[in-house]
Amino acid sequence: MADIIQLLPDSVANQIAAGEVIQRPASVVKELVENAIDAGATQIKVIIKDAGRTLIQIIDNGCGMSDTDARMSFERHATSKIRSANDIFAIRTMGFRGEALASIAAIADVELRTREHDKELGTFIHISGSEMIKQEAVSCDAGTNFQIKNLFFNVPARRKFLKSNPAELKHIINEIQRITLANPEISLSLHHNGSVIYDLTGSNKRVRIVSIFGKQINQNLVPIDTETTLAKISGFVGQPKYSRKTFGEQFFFVNKRFMKHPFFHKAIMQAYEKILPPDSVPSYFIYFDLNPADIDVNIHPTKTEIKFENESAIWQILQASVREALGKFNVVPSIDFDQAGSIDIPMPLHHFDDITIPEIKVDPTYNPFETKSSAKNYGGNSGGFTSTPTEKTNLTNWQSLYKGLESDFEAKTEPMQDIQPVQVKMDEQQNTRTSIQFKNKYILTPVKSGLMVIDQKRAHERILYERLIQVLENQEIASQQQLFPETFELNAADATLLTSILPDLRALGFDIREFGKNSFIINGTPGVLNTSTPVEIIEYLLEEYKNSPVNLQEKARETVAASLAQASAIPYGQALKANEISELIDNLFACQTPNFSPKGKKVLSIMPLDDFEKILK
Ligand code: ADP
Ligand code: MG
Fold first, then answer.
1. % pLDDT > 90, the chain
2. With a 6 A CB cut-off, is 77 part of the ligand 1 pocket?
3. 397 C-alpha to center of ligand 2: Å?
4. How far apart are CA 194 and CA 253, in angstroms?
5. What stretches of 375-455 show up as alpha helix (H) in DSSP?
6. Is 450 in the pocket of ligand 1 (CB under 6 A)?
């Protein structure tokens, strides 16, 4: 038999390697900006068109390359940063493999202009799909200028895999945030389709954080500075009151590179134990500096997880530093949110403190309200819900929904009565349905098989979401005009995002217009929301939108509606009146999908009767 093994041509090998290093436009941006920083650049300009599909251009004032180096830089395993295998151990966090440029050139059209500072002429190289098209001397600025066009032109599968422009742009912005936070002394500007997203002047960490996340973060930054033999830990943590419900302002850096570290994240969360509002996560910007030899070898260029040699010791140091910083800034004693507006629970109920809701084992497919006729059809209300939050509850609907369960309400509420601190007597028309609001967060309601726990915020999100979707589907835009139009300003990234979702917001009933650079004016809000704080809602909405899973963002309208519902729902901690609780429950079960929030979180769960018997043994 003839020999069948062949060496892959370089172009094919490069294309395969590219799949690993370059997943999306943001990977190109990351590799090229990091190269610019390695080349000693102090000023970097990043120009993006169509979220990187058409153009990614990186211009730096770094050292530039000679004509030979310029040509060599596109070869695989070509790097000026490692001479011997030993070097890898010294710079092991950096991920130098000399693969980035070879990979990018394999899957795009690349034009390079580069000149060393002491040379008069520079070099121009055009390379496309690993094929050298042209190399010649040119006059150009000192430093390096890369233009990457038609990314993935020869890898259709990759091109198809790319998400929407806003989603890809978000990845790019994330990379830029990470790199510029890691290197605050470097000036960098980011331009997208002609508008400036960031224009950052080299400065210190605090100024950099504020330029990226906005002025309001400044007074909330608590500095951290600890030096031990194992590591130097510096940076900032956010005050608990500034913490958000969503991720987006949590950053770890090690030796000037961003890393993810779930274990260290836990150290921080523990330091904040008991001083955070429920379900929120603090901002943090933590910089570790340590001997590269104390970090486990992991030179995969796209990996952001890094393993530390002395992980548990550093964990302790980190946790102690955060605690100390929070204590020093008197952050700890001023927080007391547990009491505010909550029901004073009598002693015997303290058993409930041991109940951790998420661990209750229930049949996830079990829907207590699935009667012979499904909830969707009940009451003959086509949309499945009543129209405004203030509309009076239709008690008959409630009863019909609970057909088969209502007798249960009567029977099973009795044993509960001794331990219910608040008993809400419902309208005479209704059976003695008793609900108590617990911790101003949950609504507890007895059902046939036990005690149903409803998350009040998620329930309201579901109700608002279905209303908003109906507005979209029926195109019944109803805008409530603001008495006093409000103007507000956003940071550049948020302004870009808001502009991109403005059409969807208008379809939902917002009357918002651009009003100068990064400023907007709100003239009207969606009728169904009945809100008096539109600016807050827009800010919260953007936060939620940014943190929505990318696959959800593909359905931009649904994501906007879901984020808007999240932003406008009654918050945790808000005490509800008896009739509000009742309305909330009724409106929830009039929804098409009452069990889940618009973003797929559980709205309700049932604590089985058996469990009560167990804990009271
Ligand atoms: P690596 O960064 O791992 O060395 P790359 O493929 O990213 O591999 O780059 C290859 C080489 O090209 C670098 O080692 C460097 O010498 C050179 N190079 C790349 N970008 C620049 C730049 N912006 N300025 C100067 N030299 C650069
Ligand atoms: Mg590189």
1. 36
2. no
3. 64
4. 31
5. 395-401, 406-416
6. no
Strand order in the sheet with 519-526: 479-489, 519-526, 511-514
Q: Is the whole model's pTM more than 0.70, yes or no? A: no
Counting atoms of ligand 1 from 1, which one is nearest the CA of 94? 3
**Which residues, at least 6 apart from 577, have a Cβ–Cβ distance to it below 8 Å?**
none
Measuring CA to CA, how many Å separate 36 from each of 42, 235, 484? 9, 24, 48
CB 459 within 8 A of CB 584: yes
> How much is the pLDDT for 88?
55
Site to probe by mutation for ligand 1, drawn from 28, 31, 38, 123 as the one with most ligand atoms within 8 Å of Cβ, is 38
Best residue for ligand 1 mutational test, from 21, 27, 35 (most atoms within 8 Å of Cβ): 35
- CA–CA distances in Å: residue 291 to residues 89, 231, 262: 11, 8, 21
User: What is the structure's pLDDT at 549?
Assistant: 64
> Which residue owns the Cα nearest ligand 1 atom 20?
35
Angstrom distance (rounded) from CA 187 to CA 49: 21
**Is the CB of 81 inside a 6 Å radius of any atom of ligand 1?**
yes
CA separation for the pair 431, 416 (Å, rounded) = 16
Residue 489, pLDDT > 50, answer yes
Q: Judge if the beta carbon of residue 104 lies within 6 A of ligand 1.
A: no
Digit-coded pLDDT (tens) for 185-218: 999 999 999 989 999 999 999 999 999 988 878 8
119 vs 170, residue with greater confidence: 119
Tally of residues, the chain: 617
Pocket-testing residue among 20, 42, 73, ligand 1, by greatest number of atoms within 8 A of Cβ: 73
Among the listed residues 544, 539, 565, the one whose alpha carbon sits nearest the alpha carbon of residue 467? 565
The per-residue pLDDT for range 310-345, each reduced to its tens digit, is 889 999 999 999 999 988 776 543 333 333 333 333
Q: How far is the CA of 21 from the centre of ligand 1 (A)?
A: 14
Give the tens place of pLDDT for each residue, 363-390.
445 444 444 333 322 222 222 223 333 3
In which residue are the tokens 């502009």 written? 499
Q: How far is the CA of 73 from the centre of ligand 1 (A)?
A: 6
Cβ-in-10-Å burial (0-12, 13-18, 19+) of 418 comes to exposed
Task: Quote the CA–CA distance of 72 and 88 in Å, as a whole number.
Answer: 20
Determine contact, residues 584/424, Cβ cutoff 8 Å.
Answer: no
Cα 32 to ligand 1 centre (Å) = 8
What is the dihedral sign for C-alpha 520, 523, 524, 530?
positive
Rounded to the nearest 10 degrees, how much is the dihedral formed by the CA atoms of 474, 475, 481, 487? 130
Report whether residue 63 contacts ligand 1, using a CB cutoff of 6 Å.
Answer: yes
Q: What is the 3 state secondary structure string of 493-556?
A: HHHHHHHHHHHHHHHCCCEEEECCCCEEEEEEEECCCCCCCHHHHHHHHHHHHHCCCHHHHCCH
549 Cα: distance to centroid of ligand 2 (angstroms): 29
CA atoms within 13 A on the CB side of 527: 11
Whether the CB of 39 sits within 6 Å of ligand 1 = yes
Cα of 52 from ligand 2 centre, angstroms: 19
Confidence check: pLDDT of 606 > 90: no
